[in-house]
Every structure is written in structure tokens, then in C-alpha cells.
Amino acid sequence: MITRIVRMSFIPEKKDDFLEIFHGAKNQIRAMEGCQYLSLHRDYHHINVYYTLSEWDSQEALDQYRHSELFKTTWEATKKCFHEKAQAYSLKKEVELS
């Protein structure tokens, strides 16, 4: 299982454009093979900074999504709204706490 976190900072006037893009694509992303979870979060202190959090069965599943036409068109539209380059992190759970 891979957890993917992507931090995105948006031009203030383009934030609503991004939200429209995300809400239009979220169900298709969730339906991608290997996607177990997807959510969107806004930074508590910076109103134009958002994070996506997704969980994937494997690196291969994430890569398959990242090479899909859905990703290409969605990411191309999203990049036009950026204030700065996005930062992406792929995480593997090391310890399960109970």
C-alpha cells in the first residue's frame, strides 16, 4: 500500500477553478484500478494551499493512474492554476499503531 500526498499552492483567483477540476474528476480517480482512497484537504493556515491524500494498492497502480489520459488532462488543467510547483510524496507505512 502506498499513501500519496500532493501539496499544491494556487493563485488566489484560480483556486475555484482547481476545485471545479477536482470535483469533476474525483469519482473517476477513485474508480481507477488500485485506488483505495482519495480526499482533498485545505491547509489550516494558508487558504490557497491544498493537499490531496490518496492510497494505492501498489506503485504500479499509482503509475498506471499517473500515465492515464485522466491524469494527463486533469493535471494539465490543474497546473495552470498553480502559484508554485506542486510537491508530491509517496509514503509506505512503517509501523501500525493500535
Class from helix and strand fractions:
alpha+beta
Strands, total number: 4
Task: Give the H and E element order.
Answer: EHEEHHE
The number of helical runs is: 3
Straight-line N-to-C gap: 18 Å
Radius of gyration: 14 Å
Q: What is the oligomer described by this structure?
A: single chain
Low-confidence stretches: none
How many strands, which pairing sense, and closed or not: the largest β-sheet?
4 strands, antiparallel
What is the general shape?
globular
Average pLDDT figure: 96
The strand order across the widest sheet is 2-3-1-4
Tell me what portion of residues adopts beta-strand conformation: 35-45%
- Helical amount: 25-40%
What does this entry show, briefly?
The chain is of the alpha+beta class and 98 residues long. The chain has helices at residues 15-30, 59-66, 69-79; strands spanning 2-10, 35-42, 49-56, 82-91.
Give an overview of the whole structure:
A four-stranded antiparallel β-sheet has the order 2-3-1-4. α1 (15-30) runs antiparallel to α3. By secondary structure, the protein is α+β, with helices and mostly antiparallel strands. 36% of the residues lie in helices and 36% in strands. It is built from three helices and four strands, in the order βαββααβ.
List the helices and strands and how they pair.
Layout: E1 2-10, H1 15-30, E2 35-42, E3 49-56, H2 59-66, H3 69-79, E4 82-91
Antiparallel strand pairs: 1-3, 1-4, 2-3
Helix pairs in contact: 1-3
Feature tags:
four-stranded antiparallel sheet, 4 strands, 98 residues, single chain, alpha+beta
